[in-house]
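Try this one yourself first.
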């Protein structure tokens, strides 16, 4: 056997891994294919015209974008702190940040109530001073989505920061650049693809958020009913509409993710 043939076989996928790999691929792809096959395409016009799909979709796009922006504002500095070698309590802080990844979303909504609800730790004094309460408002939708999406951005940006070449930052500091200038002019361009990838993940997670939203924000059409909530409500009353709305949400998610990836995450 030639050396090239042996190297090609060694680099190939072992036969024992092919079957589970194909099963895993089918497990991910077949449900999406099922949506497309079973969707009532002949009723598309009637369902979309007679449902709350468009207000729910518009609200989902607005709130998920706002949640992604808020996650960027809060998450990039937090990731920077986690990635610094001299930071204290990083392990404990990282563990706390990852809790929303494994926490049942409904529990996250209850937790938001305990802090920002009308009788919550921060929500009660806010309500007494201003008469404003977060629950069951569009702001509650954004906060719920940010709560579950923020860890995705933090972990993505932290990984990019750890992989970045610190010599550029050290050189800029040696030349007398202030820490803020180093971050904006050197660090941020270096980790730009990682930040974009984290923002995309956060946006996608916010768009699909259900449990924390329905618990903390409710399910009021035109006010707090996002697309996942509209699908859930349609599933109880009109399964055909639920299928079609699911396809619509799937199409929007794939289109936006593909657009953002091609534009900003190509080299990540």
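Now uncover the answer:
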């Amino acid at each position: 056997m030639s050396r090239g043939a042996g190297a090609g076989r060694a680099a190939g996928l072992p036969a024992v891994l092919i079957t589970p790999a194909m099963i895993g691929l089918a497990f991910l792809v077949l449900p999406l294919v099922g949506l497309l096959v079973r969707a009532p395409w002949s009723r598309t016009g009637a369902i979309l015209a007679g449902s709350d799909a468009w207000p729910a979709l518009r609200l989902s796009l607005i709130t998920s974008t706002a949640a992604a922006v808020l996650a960027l504002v809060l998450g990039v500095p937090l990731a920077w702190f986690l990635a610094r070698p001299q930071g204290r309590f990083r392990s404990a802080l990282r563990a706390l940040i990852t809790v929303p990844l494994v926490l049942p979303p409904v529990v996250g909504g209850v937790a938001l109530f305990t802090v920002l609800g009308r009788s919550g730790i921060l929500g009660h004094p806010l309500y007494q001073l201003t008469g404003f309460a977060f629950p069951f408002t569009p702001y509650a939708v954004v906060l719920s989505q940010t709560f579950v999406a923020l860890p995705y951005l933090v972990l993505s940006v932290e990984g990019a920061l750890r992989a970045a070449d610190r010599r550029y930052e050290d050189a800029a500091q040696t030349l007398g650049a202030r820490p803020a200038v180093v971050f904006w002019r050197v660090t941020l361009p270096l980790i730009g693809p990682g930040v974009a990838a984290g923002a995309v993940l956060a946006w996608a997670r916010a768009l699909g958020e259900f449990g924390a939203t329905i618990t903390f924000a409710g399910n009021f059409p035109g006010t707090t009913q996002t697309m996942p909530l509209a699908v859930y409500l349609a599933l109880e009353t009109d399964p055909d509409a639920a299928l079609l709305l699911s396809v619509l949400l799937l199409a929007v998610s794939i289109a936006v993710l593909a657009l953002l990836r091609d534009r900003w995450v190509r080299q990540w």
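Discussion: The mean pLDDT is 83. Residues 45-264 form a domain with the MetI-like fold fold (CATH 1.10.3720.10).
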